[in-house]
Specification:
By secondary structure, the protein is α/β, with parallel strands linked by helices. It folds into 2 domains: 169 residues, NAD(P)-binding Rossmann-like Domain (Rossmann fold); 179 residues, 2-Layer Sandwich (Dihydrodipicolinate Reductase, domain 2), CATH 3.30.360.10. It is 38% helix and 29% strand. Strands 10-11-12-7-13-14-17-16 form an 8-stranded mixed beta sheet. A hairpin with a 2-residue loop joins strand 16 and strand 17. Helix 1 packs across helix 12, helix 2 runs parallel beside helix 3 and helix 12 packs across helix 13.
Length: 378
């Protein structure tokens, strides 16, 4: 029987990257959705993909479409319709009720909390639901797990993300960035939750070559919540930066000098997102759209304090996001990953399976002194 995969929001940059990865690594019948009534599927250069017009605001139609898929471990729904700041967990709820496995690319703490509330229901229904997949969160969670496993007593997890321009993604990513500047958030620091202002406390990080030393800033990510609950550590930091560096200055100004009323105005968010996206269409030609993640874990091994770093480098953020999500989807479809409930990546994907996915997609591990870097040979 051929696997059936429904990718909600699959017509966007990230969703289409997920579809492309699945087409390359699985024998699946793939249907992508978008809000447009008609699209040109030739733009995708993915053979056999079907298109379905779907607006998530039409909850009855969403439910009916999900219910039209047979209850089977052979079928899967992948939710790629961000920004997730504006989403409820209705798609997940419908999947659980229909008995369909579920994956999403959510990157918002509030959505993560909503999704995790359905864990018991998913477990009772025999549904495997993996949230926060992609590159960050997603691959970043697996890098964290891998680093934590090097220690007898892990104490601190420090995640640093760096993206070139648009990252090869669409305007939705810009909306996500500006939405993330609206509110202070809670971070797990020294064994307690503390309030942090977004895009504050610049820290210069030594990234693997060719990036070198670049500044990153506090940014609210689901990892700050899930990793703190998954591992017995005292601190989890999540810091983000972009290049060219002037984007960091513009984002800092927006976060610290714009009135809160402006940042919470949907019209202003849309304006800033559209302008920023148009700027990256120029600068992407010079900066590229690559991504690098560095995860440093500090802890005790054999009674001595030590550190270990796991990193990944890739030339296009949107493409590797598709690999992160597509890899987990492939594992679910092949039944190598079967864990009923709602789970973040570090709680569902073993390091062994993570490395299997990365290797199959052309990544090699380069070891250094207390470090490993994943780089693509393709």
């Amino acid at each position: 029987m051929t696997n059936q995969v429904l990718i909600i929001g699959g017509y966007g940059r990230i969703g289409s990257s997920v579809a492309r990865d699945l087409a390359n690594y699985t024998n699946s019948e793939i249907t992508i959705t978008g809000r447009k009534a008609k699209v040109n599927l030739q733009e995708f250069s993915i053979s056999g993909v079907k298109y379905l017009a779907l607006d998530l605001a039409d909850k009855e139609r969403v439910k009916n479409i999900i219910n039209s898929y047979n209850k089977s471990s052979e079928n899967l729904v992948i939710h790629c319709a961000g920004p997730f700041h504006n989403r409820d967990a209705n798609v997940l709820k419908n999947c659980i009720e229909a008995g369909l496995n579920y994956v999403d690319i959510s990157d918002c703490r509030d959505f993560t909390c909503k999704a995790l509330e359905y864990s018991e229901a998913a477990q009772n229904a025999g549904v495997t639901a993996i949230i926060n997949t992609g590159i960050f969160p997603g691959i970043s969670n697996s890098l964290s797990r891998q680093s934590v496993e090097q220690f007898d007593e892990p104490e601190e997890i420090h995640l640093s993300y760096l993206v070139g321009g648009s990252g090869g993604a669409g305007v939705t990513v810009m909306r996500t960035t500006f939405l993330g500047l609206q509110n202070d958030f809670e971070a797990w620091i020294n064994g307690k939750w503390q309030s942090v202002k977004p895009y504050s406390d610049r820290q210069v990080i030594e990234f693997p070559p060719p990036y070198g030393k670049i500044g990153v800033y506090w940014f609210d990510m689901p990892e700050s919540l899930t990793l703190a609950n998954s591992f017995p550590v005292k601190t989890v930091t999540t810091k983000f930066g972009s290049f060219p560096n002037f984007y960091n200055h513009l984002t800092w100004i927006t976060a610290h000098l714009f009135p809160v009323s402006l940042l919470k105005n949907s019209g202003v968010i849309e304006f800033l997102s559209q302008v920023s996206y148009k700027m990256t269409q120029v600068t992407d030609k010079y900066s590229g759209t690559g991504v690098v993640i560095k995860v440093e874990v500090i802890g005790k091994k054999s009674g001595a304090k030590d550190n270990f770093c796991s990193s990944i480098i890739y030339e296009d953020t949107a493409t590797v996001t598709g690999m992160g999500t597509g890899g987990i989807a492939e594992l679910i479809l092949s039944k190598k990953l079967n864990k009923p409930g709602v789970w973040s990546v570090e709680n569902s994907l073993s390091t062994e399976l993570f490395e299997e996915v990365m290797q199959s997609r052309g990544f090699v591990k380069n070891y250094g002194n207390k470090s490993v870097v994943y780089q693509s040979l393709n």
